[in-house]
Amino acid sequence: MSTENPDAPQLTYAEAGVDTAAGDSAVELMKAAVAGTHGPNVVGGFGSFAGLFDASVLAGMRRPLLATSTDGVGTKVEIARRLDKHDTIGQDLVGMVIDDIVVIGARPLFMTDYIACGSVDPERIAAIVGGIARACQACDTALIGGETAEHPGLLGPDEYDIAGAVTGVVEADAMLGPDRVEEGDVVVALAASGLHSNGYSLVRATLEAAGVGLGEHHEDFGRTVGEELLEPTRLYAPICLPMLERIEGIHALSHITGGGLGANLSRVLPEGLRARVIRSAWQVPPVFTAVHTWGNVPLADLENTLNMGIGMAVVCTPDAVDEVQAMASEQDCDSWVLGEIGSDNDPIEGTHISGVKGVAGGSVELLGDYRMS
């Protein structure tokens, strides 16, 4: 029996703020980009309730370990929203999740994404997913599933957030980690493309404090502030995974994300060893100097929040350094020697970092001053 009141106004799902037709339109717009990431191991194609990946690809492995990571891009999405440019934020998401499993030597197999928004704009959603798909292709990873959820009343019509998860695989006896690192190893930095996707709450606060607009041209950037801040995260999977196939002597990788160089590098070192990093080993890119200046941010806070121009660190034997740098150069990625691994019993002369992010491992000592313009 119907309980409708014919005299009362009717309220539909669309009038409540959820437009299912717009969601269907977004799906149609993104289908080609997603399908472009699918290889022969993806089963079932597009639109199923669950993404399927043929695990028989692992059958020839001796002891395959599955690796997984999940993350988002933080408040960098606010920069994309304010600039109304949404086709690069997906690369940030891919970089955040895939390069977290690359650090143990895992090869990414497939990824899923989640987009929550206040109102579905089909073109905007397609632009976001298109960026995710392009980055997945660059990392030889299948994008096999995702979800777009409309949250009216919780998010504003133009607001959204994105998250993702990746699954990869590594042979147990090939897994990188602290147990491989030895005294005398060298730390090589792989350059970041910019701020990547960490510390944007601090960055946005400094913009507000200094009254700097995203549309302002910045001479040191050679472009607008907004364009610099929206520069997508460099993808290290296409750089580091070939290194691991060709170069013996790579013992650990560290993805430099939230917490900065010291916090993340110390996570991949064993107890009893310390990485001695020379701050003057590289020229800090202008965007970090700008953030420092805009908010008068203490240098200690800056280096504990931002990557300072280093997106990935490679810990390797001395005789592997030249080949590591040569392969980075082949991928148009600058690199330089940061320092070396020594004993944690040596006298402390600089900033000492250990026991962060819940890891009781080695430590990092940052020595000297940064070269900042």
From TrEMBL:
EC numbers on record: 6.3.3.1
GO biological process, one term: 'de novo' IMP biosynthetic process
Record-linked CDD domains: PurM
Subcellular location: Cytoplasm
Keywords: ATP-binding, Cytoplasm, Ligase, Nucleotide-binding, Purine biosynthesis
Principal localisation: cytoplasm
Pathway listed: Purine metabolism; IMP biosynthesis via de novo pathway; 5-amino-1-(5-phospho-D-ribosyl)imidazole from N(2)-formyl-N(1)-(5-phospho-D-ribosyl)glycinamide: step 2/2
Residues covered by the PurM-like C-terminal domain: 182-345
Gene3D superfamilies: PurM-like C-terminal domain, PurM-like, N-terminal domain
Domain PurM-like N-terminal: 55-170
Record-given protein name: Phosphoribosylformylglycinamidine cyclo-ligase
Name of the gene this protein is made from: purM
